[in-house]
Amino acid sequence: MSTIVTGRRVEVEVPATSANLGPGFDCLGLGLDLYNSCSFETVDHPGVTVEVVGEGAGRLPTDERNLIVRSLDLGLKRLGWQATGLRLHAVNRIPSSRGMGSSSAAIVTGLIGAHALVHPDEPFAPGDWLALADEIEGHPDNVAAALYGGLVLAYHPLVDAGNGLAAAAAATTAPVHPDVRLLALVPNRPLGTETARSVLPEQVRHHDAAANAGRAAMLIHALGRAPGLLYEATADWLHQTQRAGVMAESAAALERLRAERLPAVISGAGPTILVLGREPEVERAVELGVEGFTPHRLQVGIGARIVPH
Do both 92 and 18 map to the same domain? Predict the structure, then answer.
């Protein structure tokens, strides 16, 4: 195991993400132009210190339990390196426990930080780190969107189709039409991903699965070529209604927006609502004014990057 020299400093940026996008449960993700940043510095005294500014300050762990630190450690071990001591300064802008990929951002921050510390002059290749990010997170949609940015389709390639065995996570990207605009409606109260997943049924009706598959295919087309289809393309039968009991305010707001034929979805595991549409649709959503939710106008974001110095 090699040791990184002291005095090395790098900085990375990682985007917020929105997963599912309605019908694309656990496979579709979208990078947003809202970024967490973190600097890493190797120091000569043992241990790790973490300073958190912004979201989670005073609440997130500032030692080895921090998710960035745990992911960084796994990344360094994969590369065969270690650091005597580390100082991290994290500036968090992504709302936590709101369905905007804050945990995925932390994971990717640690992994890209490991790459940057060991190979400061080499480009960061998202595909090299997706499998490990998926292993840490437990599903690939958000981490893939954080790594690649833009619209991402994450999947596990089949290595034995007869037995349905799948390999480590992979992803491919798809274009987004320049007319697509985004509006995140962020509620005041958080919701843990585990709670949101706990209410999902283990089995779904064949009819519902088929309907979702069709709308997921339409969604790729709508986002890339035909934004006018986004309302129809964002219909879902697998997870949003099933989660209504643990996010009643979001469920009611979503119903209200869709009653106006606005292409609104629950972002990830919620409770944030994401409106994906053209400028007039986003403007209508803003004018409706959903009480208890803070609107954030966003655009499609780029993937994780090492900040040049």
Answer: yes
